[in-house]
Amino acid sequence: MLSVDPDTVSPGSDAVDAMLAAAGDARAFERLYRGHVARIHGLARRMAGEDEAGDLTQMIFVRAWQKLGTFRGESKFGTWLHRVAINVILGRRASMKTERARRHEGDEIFETLPSRPAGTEHRVDFDRAIVKLPQGARQIFVLHDVEGFKHEEIARLLKINIGTSKAQLHRARMLLRGHLGR
Amino acid sequence: MGLDIGRDDRGRDPWIDRLSEYLDGEMTGHERTACEAHLATCDACTEALDDLRAVVSRAQALEDAPPAEDLWPGIASQIAPRRPIARPGRVWWTRRFEIGVPQLAAAGVLLVGLSAGAVWLLARGPVVRTTPIAGVRSAPAPIAAAVPSPPAPSPSATTTTAGSGAEAPMAVPAYDAGTGPAAVTAGMTNPRYDASIAALEQALADGQGHLDPKTLRIIARNLRVIDRAIEEARTAVAADPNNTWLQSHLAATMKRKADLLRSATLLAAAG
């Protein structure tokens, strides 16, 4: 093939690769994937759980490929991709029938987690505890405390009021107190 | 919420439910002052606030790790080949395609075939076409016939140009009254030709799903080359409108595009 080998990519070339990918260069898009998959997968895992994270990550990158024509370079590619990811995740979650049942089970599942583990496991446990939060609290916690969204943005994304966003965030934080591992 | 916050009916300290607001700086000045006064006297809320700070700090320090399994093959299988995007004023073959060595080799074979056909036609002498060359639903034609005939000195297919001196005017082949580019010398546009090209482009776009991606890439590459040649020829004719050779060259290039489109359309229809 005539395109550049993904291994030879230089850092900071997202904008160029995004342009190439928008023109159909799958190798350029692979470089973008390699550079951003960890963050996107982390977001998907925390928002939707380990079981769905792989499928969601694939969906996010496929959607990004389809929408590359809308990327104008006005923001960083990572920011644009992150927005695509949030939309895919929230859209997917809204459409899942099983989610309703999970929402009701959230508190119970959370209580089954061992609290305050010792040693180096506490970081993994904290991440796992996030995934086990009740859905509403989890999404808001991830968006606010992990991803840095404001309550106004979260309320708009989740179609809830700001007061609900604040209350759910506090709920999530209080539930996670027991998993600080210190 | 008022500033005097006592315990609720269940004996729960209401301030504890507002500690995130305090932590995030979302309280008004008065609320903040009252909350801090409460914290100075409440060990439980102070401990909770410390925990909340630690939770936020931990959340911000979370590390991302790539998935255990490489997801790229699954993604690649869903994104290739990219479906053409219909854009106003832009036809599908102007998109970028990756061309591999096998495809280039195939293109070379096609080119050799076209060249051989051209030599054969030249050896036969001038040919005056009597059937339309372009039409989406016309009879199939061998791809070798897509090579434009050299300018033929036919009275019915000749455009006389002024200012050419004592030499006989060169002929511009009028391949087809309806779809041929015979009008190039007038305004370099021919609505009927343009309409035929548009119809062929649409027919090919509709049928491209039946074509092998490699074949599609070869066709796209050749169409892009022809489009560039047409643009260059148009520019040259505009700069030198009395140059009959340029007129002939433009007409032949336009015909080549029509023939290639027609062959590709028929190929797609056969697929």
Task: Explain how this protein is built.
In chain A, 71% of the residues lie in helices and 0% in strands. In chain A, α2 packs across α7 (135-146) and α7 (135-146) packs across α9 (162-176). With 182 residues, chain A is mainly α. Chain A folds into two domains: 12-96, Rna Polymerase Sigma Factor, Chain: A, CATH 1.10.1740; 98-182, Winged helix-like DNA-binding domain superfamily/Winged helix DNA-binding domain (Arc Repressor Mutant, subunit A). Chain A starts with 13 loop residues before the first helix and ends in a 6-residue tail after the last helix. Chain A contains nine helices and no strands. In chain B, α5 packs across α8. Chain B is an all-alpha fold and 271 residues long. Chain B folds into two domains: 14-54, no CATH class; 100-270, no CATH class. Chain B has nine helices and no strands. Chain B is elongated, with a radius of gyration of 36 Å. In chain B, 52% of the residues lie in helices and 0% in strands. At the A-B interface, α2, α3, α6, α7 and α9 of A face α1, α3 and α4 of B.
Quickly list its features:
heterodimer, A: 182 residues, Rna Polymerase Sigma Factor, Chain: A, Arc Repressor Mutant, subunit A, 2 domains, elongated, B: 271 residues, mainly alpha
Largest protein interface? A-B, 43 and 38 residues
Count of separate DSSP helical elements of chain B: 9
Q: Work out the count of structural domains of chain A.
A: 2
Relative strand content of chain A: under 5%
What is the 3D shape of chain B?
A: elongated
Q: Quick one: how many beta strands of chain A?
A: 0
Compressed to H and E, one letter per element, the order of chain A equals HHHHHHHHH
- Average per-residue pLDDT of chain A, rounded, comes to 81
Question: What's the end-to-end separation of chain B, in Å?
Answer: 73 Å
- Structural category of chain A: mainly alpha
Q: Would you state the CATH class of the largest domain in chain A?
A: Mainly Alpha
* Shape designation of chain A: elongated
Give the count of helical stretches of chain A: 9
CA(first)-CA(last) distance of chain A:
53 Å
List segments of chain A where confidence is low: pLDDT < 50 over at least 5 consecutive residues: 1-12, 104-114, 116-120
CATH-defined topology of the largest domain in chain A? Rna Polymerase Sigma Factor, Chain: A
- The computed structural class of chain B is mainly alpha
What proportion strand of chain B? Answer: under 5%
> What is the name of the CATH superfamily of the largest domain in chain A?
RNA polymerase sigma factor, region 2, helix turn helix motif
